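To fix ideas at the outset, we first show an illustrative case, written as a sequence plus integers encoding its fold:
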Amino acid sequence: MENDLIWQQIMPLVLKENRSGNEIQEAGLKTYVKECYDDNTLYFFFMCNTLDI
């Protein structure tokens, strides 16, 4: 799925900390999300660097 052309064209957004709204500084804990849609469906693609998930 990550190799699909549509996902390669979308810039990822970095998710922020829930409480402070600040960006997570440690690269190993960052989570990225990409989104797109078609006429019927909204799609999300999450990339998580943490090993705990």
